[in-house]
Amino acid sequence: MKAEELARRVRAGERVALARAITLVESRRADHERRAGELLQAVLPATGSAMRVGISGPPGAGKSTLIDQLGVNLIGAGHRPAVLAVDPSSTRSGGSILGDKTRMARLAAEPAAFIRPTPSAGRLGGVAARSREAILLCEAAGHDIVIVETVGAGQSEAEVADMVDTFLFLAQPGAGDELQGLKRGALELADIIAVTKADGDTAGAADRSAAELTAALQLLQPGAAGWRPPVLTVSALTNRGLDALWAAVLRHAAAMGEAGAFAERRAEQRVRWMHQLIEDKLRELLLAAPGMGRRLAELEGEVRKGSLSPRLAADRALAREPVEITHGA
Amino acid sequence: MKAEELARRVRAGERVALARAITLVESRRADHERRAGELLQAVLPATGSAMRVGISGPPGAGKSTLIDQLGVNLIGAGHRPAVLAVDPSSTRSGGSILGDKTRMARLAAEPAAFIRPTPSAGRLGGVAARSREAILLCEAAGHDIVIVETVGAGQSEAEVADMVDTFLFLAQPGAGDELQGLKRGALELADIIAVTKADGDTAGAADRSAAELTAALQLLQPGAAGWRPPVLTVSALTNRGLDALWAAVLRHAAAMGEAGAFAERRAEQRVRWMHQLIEDKLRELLLAAPGMGRRLAELEGEVRKGSLSPRLAADRALAREPVEITHGA
């Protein structure tokens, strides 16, 4: 299908076209890449209108259950949420489709919702770039809320934070000095923190955890527009606190919008993304030079051992034999 | 002076040679770069033996005063500390030499100490790379402790954390929910936190701040080797707590060493550094293409406005006209 035709169908809200479009932007085949570029440019005017919300948290915090219930609530309020998963450590392939849809069973059954499973991992500079473009495609397809879920392995949290407007962190209830599973770095990125499982036996622990987290956050400087991350308690099981959670997301977006920080954040994200893509491409071109993969591995080995300085290794990577990096139009 | 001769003098502990060597690695002149590469390779066997300690904290936390007193203590114990400053936001030029030496007046007067002022800013990918190499040169010159100080603007804290063994964060005393100036991200990077000014009127506030920070850190997962950042109180004025602070640095290094995490951390740092240098060089080569600076600025403008997708912009940056990036040996 031509890029223009695919763009038209995506914008008409055809689910199959949206899924296909995301597959296209995920592809690294040269002809697919060209079509993907055309597709993205064609849908560009229809993008940017959704609220983009990142959600992370440790395994077992109840991300899927929360997103399932939150998504159902949002549909009840007339929204059309899309859910994208980012999991760079994932080795799942085809099976993940079923996996993600099972994890969010009620949302998956809703015609207004779109759930995109984790893309396969391990490609160069890939996961974040593809997820950013998947967000745009979801917006073009009329989804007014895009939720990007990440398991928080490695750099993925920072990458997701850099593609959303509001980043929500889930914490588990844990009494006293027990671990709540908050990774170092979580407090840095979070715009909102929600302690999950505020129900039944764990309700009290959730309240105590929220109080402790609130105290901890008081020690940090506020973020952009003077925003201080609120700490809420939620129960996906009983649906308690989820309306308040969404209200906090809206409050955050409004605060950013008033301060002009919202548009600026998105513009900065796009520019960083462009530079990231240029870097990825340059590295790809470098690696395409004959024998370069092996040479880099050898140099890396010497640098790791300490027998070669990183500077000389970098020089040799690029210059031991004249390297020609040419990229035609 | 030839690189070999300069290397010999650096290793002989000649201060002037060390200062000159650092100036050489800071230079971006092509012939200087080649000599710097030779110099670094020549001193490589004499590097790696120092404790590398990063120190950051908000303006006013008393970084200089603390480093001054700590340095004097270390010299008293037979050490030869070097202090490097990283300040990417600095626009100071020659004046910084006096500035840094005035800030640490007692240490500057010690023959066993070496203080290197902030390098001038604004060069491509420069500050971190140069500081990493300055650390190596200080080690080759026999400094067994290298302190890297940063003001914590932008990315500099993360960069400094990636070039040291132990990262120390200073916080100011502040009662209750007052701000202690801790930036978001500080808790992520810190191996040790010290609340300063634990003397006179602010002694009580320092204790309370330390207790609050301790509670906050309990909520986070421990770092490598199960290390939990301790929170100490110090007074540079009365020298109280500085021995305990250094003991914590040694404890951290020992814990990392026992877990094998110390050597691994340095090896990973070197490899990341090599890749960073390759990226910097590729970007430099790209920018050296005729008209590329202007073209990138135009594309960035369009991406910022939202009229061009980042993917197409990246493609055009590299491919609108055939771009040839050639780097001879």
Assembly state? homodimer
Give the uncertain stretches of chain A in residue-range form: 90-98, 121-125, 320-329
Helix content of chain A: 40-55%
Distance between the termini of chain A: 23 Å
Q: In terms of structural class, how would the helical and strand content of chain A be classed? A: alpha/beta
Let me know the largest β-sheet of chain A: 7 strands, parallel
DSSP strand tally of chain A: 8
- Biggest sheet: strand arrangement of chain A: 3-2-4-1-5-6-7
Q: How many individual helices of chain A?
A: 14
- Provide the β-strand percentage band of chain A: 5-15%
Q: What's the average pLDDT of chain A?
A: 84
Polypeptide structure, described:
Two copies of one chain form a homodimer. Chain A is of the alpha/beta class. The radius of gyration of chain A is 22 Å and the shape is globular. In chain A, helix 10 links the parallel strand 6 (about 190-195) and strand 7 (about 230-235). Chain A starts with a helix and ends with a strand. In chain A, about 50% of the residues are buried. The first copy, chain A, is about 50% helix and about 10% strand. Chain A contains 14 helices and eight strands. The interface between A and B is large, with 71 and 71 residues.
